[in-house]
Design brief:
By secondary structure, the chain is an all-alpha fold. It contains three helices and no strands. The structure holds zinc ion.
Length: 82
């Protein structure tokens, strides 16, 4: 995937997760906010594991090491980028 496109998608997806955390902290009961934060943390961790590196050699996902978009990022983009 083109690095400029990836950076734009990364910014949009992570920005959406940040917004969910902000909304949860201000508008939901504590228990719901905790669970939403757990979900956004899980997504961030998954995205980190599937973020292509400059050399693509340190990433263990075989798809991330190819020019195409990793399925994890396809799902994240479909869900979090309107
Ligand atoms: Zn991947």
């Amino acid at each position: 995937m083109d690095e400029i496109l990836f950076r734009a998608l990364d910014e949009r997806v992570r920005g959406h997760l940040d917004e969910v955390d902000r909304l949860a902290a201000t508008t939901h009961p504590a228990r719901t906010a905790v669970e939403l934060h757990r979900l956004t943390t899980a997504w961030r961790t998954l995205l980190d594991l599937h973020t292509p590196t400059a050399t693509r050699r340190t990433n263990r996902c075989p798809v991330c090491r190819t020019p195409g978009m990793c399925p994890v990022w396809k799902v994240a983009t479909a869900i979090f980028v309107p």
